[in-house]
Specification:
With 446 residues, the protein is α+β, with helices and mostly antiparallel strands. The chain has three domains: 47 residues, Transferase, Pyrimidine Nucleoside Phosphorylase, Chain A, domain 3; 258 residues, Nucleoside phosphorylase/phosphoribosyltransferase catalytic domain (Pyrimidine Nucleoside Phosphorylase, Chain A, domain 2); 90 residues, Alpha-Beta Complex (Aldehyde Oxidoreductase, domain 3), CATH 3.90.1170.30. The chain contains 16 helices and 14 strands. The strands form four sheets. It has a five-stranded mixed beta sheet, sandwiched between helices. Strands 6-9-11-7 form a four-stranded antiparallel beta sheet, with helices on both faces. Helix 10 links the parallel strand 4 and strand 5. Helix 4 crosses helix 10 and helix 5 packs across helix 14. Keywords: Glycosyltransferase, Transferase.
């Protein structure tokens, strides 16, 4: 058998040729084992960035990365297990609402989540703002909670798709982040290793998302859906708007509080509507609803009845958290400084720059500028306006929460810059642009 050489694989991709399963598997396994140096993997990543990959190559790469570490086996759990992944945004509190809401229907929700980096908040950080909650489950605890309660959320361990962790760190310093095959394989390898049968993707697009342009978001969604199909995981992607913050709260304990409000039947209509829509497709994937319309009706009934909130309380208690926060959110971390920003002018809100709001929250302490940075779980922003609203002079626009008074002046300036007023109203953009499944892109039914 001919011995494989990394340089030949690099050259083949440099010349735009298609790599075989053996070549891609060798590359990933050898790099994970430390047998291929960073400089050679960096060269290969740049070749992929320049020449791209076929769907079949990307699927093979995804599976090789998934199999580079532990593959969680959820076959002992009855029913169709569903996972959901968001590509990241601002005030994107969907998991905290969606997971218990869908689990309350009897559908097992197996979720591995990450921590925040930059202005996109991490689900694990949000959950760890709940006193006592354990968001680092063992594999046995994860499976047990899923079996008994239809819901388990845990942080991703280093044993899940370790090849992705190594490759992502290298992409970050070699200008190869913005590659659709590399982004898609990174996301899907972790989802596949986590063991769910079906996958729902929330692909954000807009100034507060990784994908700024609709064409790029659509291409990423289509690539991940095809990967899912090629590796035997039915996958659906929703393309959702991230030109303004999705919910009202930006920050960890603040977002937990908002999730409790929505599960109690209150809160942001935009966040609630997106959660219900995403959840309806999770139910369709799981076979628990014959159509998204039926799924939406069921989920709204669970919100109205309080069963979604009860499942959230149950989840908190099972994972060691203080479930009294559901009745008394003041038990969550509280900021020592609270300041409300009011409008200096009257007019229509023409724009709220989601990225700028997210960066402001990060500078207040709610997010990380580097991986090891400690965050302030109480810090953040509550938005009191949305695009299309009419505001009067002195009307509240947002409330800033922090424990560091030295950060206030800069935060006020940044937040004011993110909110643009005009004399005329502007069209209100859709929350969800459409759905991508194996048959392509189509508009989401109203």
């Amino acid at each position: 058998m001919k011995k494989m050489h990394t340089v030949d694989i690099i050259a083949k991709k440099r010349d735009g040729m298609i790599l075989s399963e053996k070549e891609l598997t060798f590359l990933i396994n050898a790099y994970t084992a430390g047998e291929i140096p960073d400089y050679q993997m960096a060269a290969w990543l740049m070749a992929v960035y320049q020449k791209g990959m076929t769907d079949e190559e990307t699927a093979i790469l995804t599976l090789a990365m998934a199999k580079s570490g532990d593959m969680i086996d959820l076959t002992s759990i009855p029913g169709i297990k569903v996972d959901k992944h968001s590509t990241g945004g601002v005030a994107d509190t969907t998991t905290l609402v969606l997971a218990p809401l869908v689990a309350a229907t009897g559908v097992p929700v197996a979720k591995m989540s990450g921590r925040g980096l930059g202005f996109t908040g991490g689900t694990i950080d949000k959950l760890e703002s709940i006193p006592g909650l354990n968001a680092t489950l063992t594999k046995e605890e994860f499976i047990s909670n899923l079996l008994k309660h239809n819901l388990a959320i845990t942080g991703q361990t280093a044993d899940i798709a370790p090849a992705d962790g190594k490759i992502y760190a290298l992409r970050d310093v070699t200008a190869t982040i913005e590659s659709i095959p590399l982004i898609a394989s990174s996301i899907m390898s972790k989802k596949i290793a986590a063991g769910a049968d079906k996958i729902l993707l929330d692909v954000k697009v807009g100034n507060g998302a990784f994908m700024k342009k609709m064409a790029d978001a659509l291409k990423l969604a289509e690539t991940m859906v095809r990967i899912g199909e090629l590796v035997g995981r039915q996958t659906i992607a929703a393309i959702t708007n991230m030109d303004e913050p999705l919910g009202e709260a930006v920050g960890n304990s603040l977002e937990v509080r908002e999730a409790i409000g929505i599960l109690s039947g209150r809160g942001s209509h935009s966040l609630k509507d997106v959660c219900v829509t995403l959840g309806s497709y999770m139910l369709v994937l799981a076979g628990a609803a014959c159509s998204p319309a039926v799924g939406k009706k069921l989920l709204r009934e669970l919100l109205d009845s309080g069963k979604g909130l009860n499942k959230f309380r149950e989840f908190i208690k099972v994972q060691g958290g203080n479930d009294e926060i559901v009745a008394n959110p003041l038990l969550l971390p509280q900021a020592g400084i609270k300041l409300t920003l009011v409008s200096k002018h009257k007019g229509f809100i023409n724009q709220i720059n989601a990225a700028q709001v997210g960066f402001t929250a990060m500078r207040l302490g709610a997010g990380r500028e580097y991986k090891e940075q400690q965050i302030d779980l109480a810090a953040g922003i509550i938005m009191h306006c949305r695009v299309g609203d009419y505001v009067e002079i002195d009307q509240p626009l947002a409330t800033i929460y922090t424990n560091d008074g030295n950060k206030l002046e800069n935060a006020i300036s940044m937040l004011r810059q993110s909110i643009v007023l005009g004399s005329d109203s502007v069209p209100i953009p859709p929350l969800i642009y459409g759905i991508v499944d194996i048959n392509g892109f189509h508009q989401e039914p109203v």
